[in-house]
Amino acid sequence: MSSPKPIKKAVFPVAGLGTRFLPATKAIPKEMLPIVDRPLIQYAVDEAREAGIEQMIFVTGRGKTAIVEHFDVAYELEDTMRERGKDLGVLESSRFVPGDIITVRQQVPLGLGHAIWCARAIVGDEPFAIFLPDELMIARQGGGTGCMKQMVDAYAQTGGNLISVLEIPRDQVSSYGVIDPGAQVSDTLTEVTGLVEKPPVDQAPSNKIVSGRYILQPEVMRVLEDQEKGAGGEIQLTDAMARMIGTQPFHAVTFDGRRYDCGSKTGFVEATLALAMEREDMGDEVRAIARRLLG
After folding, report:
1. For the chain, which residues score pLDDT lower than 70?
2. Are residue 166 and residue 41 in the same domain, yes or no?
3. Backbone angles phi, psi at 8, to 5 degrees
4. Which range of residues forms the domain containing residue 274?
5. What are the strands, taking DSSP E only, across 27-173?
6. Could you count the other beta carbons within 10 Å of the beta carbon of residue 122?
7. Do residues 255 and 150 make contact, with C-beta atoms less than 8 angstroms apart?
8. Do 148 and 269 fall within a single domain?
């Protein structure tokens, strides 16, 4: 079997309104809300870079210019920092080669599938990755790799389509998309024979939930262009992927790491605390604060 085409492009659907975090998101995109001192979108982009992805495609909406500006050169800020002898290294992760950041506009919020379809001209005929920045995926402590790097490594063996999954307690599966598993290829790689959105606990085919990272073949765009509406009257990516199962290889990679649901306020707070406590420059102080508050 010939080697699959490398994954060099990633789509970030960031056009959502962020209503769960109002009023904070009235003027600030939810993807720019910081976990400690880095915005959510930065964590996702850093994960993409670790996996060897070179071109970031942001599918944006009205009021989302701050996301693009975050990855732009801030001349005034940098000049002021230089004059004051400040280290510019803290800005390095937000710098990009011109042309490596591309934005497209989703004018009408018609669902995740529609947002991905909006990037079709840039994706072209290449396989591509998808990142949902709300899902903060953190590598295992002690030298683990990021979620997308684990998926890219698996993709080099399988080709086709891959989704990241996590195992959760079975009594929680009704809140998530769940895979119907086929053959167990390895400890972390499972064949996918079907996808079920928010199944009743007693009807769930597994306890492996879809967790916001995807590698898909460009044919998914042909499926999405039919503009068929699914749950909630929106064009669903899950429906398009389900139609591709059986026509191309489809696997799930069980992520060896941690996931924080930063689309919820409690998940956002949990992520902030967890990552702050791991920081060498503030971990001890944050743990002391936590103990004091709990005492």
Report:
1. 1-2, 227-228, 230-233
2. yes
3. -115, -10
4. 265-295
5. 34-35, 38-39, 55-60, 101-105, 128-131, 135-139, 161-167
6. 16
7. yes
8. no
Residues 117 and 60 in one domain: yes
Which of these, 41, 48, 30, lies nearest to 133 by C-alpha position? 41
pLDDT, position 146:
93
Residue 97 lies in a domain: yes
Cα dihedral 266, 198, 225, 223 in deg (nearest 10): 130
**Given this model, what pLDDT does residue 71 score?**
86
Distance between CA atoms of residues 33 and 87, nearest Å: 23
User: Same domain for 159 and 247?
Assistant: yes
CATH number of the domain where residue 75 is located: 3.90.550.10
Burial of 266 by CB count in 10 Å (0-12 exposed, 13-18 middle, 19+ buried)?
exposed
Cis peptide before 23 (omega within 30 of 0): yes
Q: 29 lies in a domain?
A: yes
Q: Measure the CA–CA gap between 273 and 282, rounded to whole angstroms.
A: 11
Domain count, the chain: 2
pLDDT at 290: 92
Residue 2 lies in a domain: no
Span 109-130, pLDDT tens digits: 788 899 999 999 999 999 999 9
Q: What contacts 114, CB < 8 A, 6 or more positions away?
A: 106, 108, 224, 227, 234, 235
What is the Cβ-side half-sphere exposure of residue 11, based on CA atoms within 13 angstroms?
31
* 170 within a domain of the structure (yes/no): yes
- What Å distances lie between residue 184 and 1, 180, 181, CA to CA? 20, 12, 8
Same domain, 25 and 137: yes
Residue partners of 117: CB distance under 8 A and separation at least 6: 221, 224, 225, 235
Residue with tokens 């699959």: 4
pLDDT at 2: 67
Q: Give burial (CB, 10 Å; 0-12/13-18/19+) of 62.
A: exposed
Question: Number of H helices and number of E strands within the chain?
Answer: 10, 13
